[in-house]
Amino acid sequence: MRRVLIWGVGAMLAFLVTAGAFLMLANLSSSLSTRGVGPTPAQSNSAPPLGLNLSEASLEELKKEADQVLPLTVDNTSESALSNISLTMRVTSENTAQLRARYYRATIKELAPGASKTVRFTLDLSSPKPSERRHPLPPDSPEPRSVLEVQATTPEGVSAIKTAVLPF
Amino acid sequence: MKLLGLLAAMLALAGCAHLKEGTPISPSPVGQRPADFGLGPGIRPLSSGPGDKSSPSWSPSGERIAFVVDGYVVEKRTNDSEARRQTTRDFGAKRVTWMSSGRLAMLAEDPPPGPETTPVSGAGPPQSVYSTFPDDSLGVDKLATGVSAMTSTTEGGGLLVALREGTSKSRLATVRWNGAVQTYGDVIDGAVTALSMAPDGDQAIATVQKPGPELNFEILSFSFPENRFQTLTSLRSGLQVFGTPQWTSNGIYYVAGKKPGTKGKVSPDYNLYRLAPGSKRSELAPGVGEDFVASSLKRNPEGDLLAIIGRRNPSSPVNLYVLRPGAGDLVAATTNENMEIRTETEDLAWSDDGSRVAIVARTMLSGPRVYDVPADALVSDFYNIYEVPVEEATGAPA
Description:
The structure holds 2 protein chains of 2 kinds. By secondary structure, chain A is α+β, with helices and mostly antiparallel strands. Chain A contains 3 helices and 7 strands. Chain B is mostly beta strands.
């Protein structure tokens, strides 16, 4: 009888020690994975390697007409040169029924570390022609806003985006 | 035994340790974001990105919302950012409303008429009512044509519509999702410009623009059990009813005035009126103040509250207010800082449980704005749908 009791206590002890060890390991691994999700503070503070700058002064000078020049400055904030930076400017309307997606493209062949380059886009911001609209605008509808979306990408997968909303 | 107890305690501590370190779950960009979007705390967007959104409609459960985006119809769960398109992009929808769970009814303009077609005065362009298929095929059924106004009925998941009769007359009819149409009452002399139901579902209100060169409006009630119309009030010549009159437990409320641009008027001159039960004389609605400028209104499902888009006075910002008719409690549900809130009746919708109101708004923009995100992630720069909790306003003491 005593031997059975000793065996029982021993088995229970072995179970508790093993289970406790597994639980501690599980907690350790889950807390590590929680900490591992998301950027570290140092990473989140680091600037992206490509910077796009649309000056508000230039944007304010734009009119709802054709041949509007908008400068875009591209900064290489990384420590290595970037090549073949593809720039796509997409001009659309707040009212998506207007088929006014006008695309403008440019490429920067080479941009040294820390260097900047300004590209001038000549945009057509005039009202869409009737044939460009899916529906006529209701007579009392407010003026739809214009949306300029510029995206820069490199063959290495570096990308940046900037969106400007104009009141017309 | 002491060793056993120690081991058990260690085991319990190890098992509970993880529960203490709760990891917060980030809210989704649309639908759950607690930020202030310029309308006040607790008001959250239900849509995002460019697109002229209008005509929000809550599903009967309140878990989904449908709306029109630039002429096509989408619907989504209120807590998701993903919206499902329900029609083709060129559909031309003006309004959408939930008929029954899973089916939407839509009012859409008919294709441009031929040169020999005579336009109907006051009723706007010809329109038809459609319903969506229960699947996601983007297919629609045409339920009725020649429709000038539509509202969902309180019961049965159907619609009440005004059908054109010739060039200057109208008739009321109910339309079911299976296409069954039943006409009611006599022919109405004039074009029905708006329809709404009484809370009990037994009566409806029709706004009628009378034929003729002068601007003459009447508000009629229609009793379904008696199958007859009654003229509630005739407006003074030159005055126009804006939006859709609403039947509340304390009478019928409506907005009327002269349209801006009419002779001698450069700014809107609207007033909120009340027709007391049994009265044929309208009065300025009590409880809102003399300077209040109302633009549109919608009653809650019970009919004891009115959501009103308006201004406290002509120089104050547009806000959503909740009025308890009869009690005179006008409570602001939004605190508009710099937003344009749409003022059409159809851009105002109560959830079926009466706890939320959907409105459409965008921020005022005097100059360009620049962001580091794609346009689809922007909210307040474009007309988007916002959910306004009104429990605090509706819980105000009577």
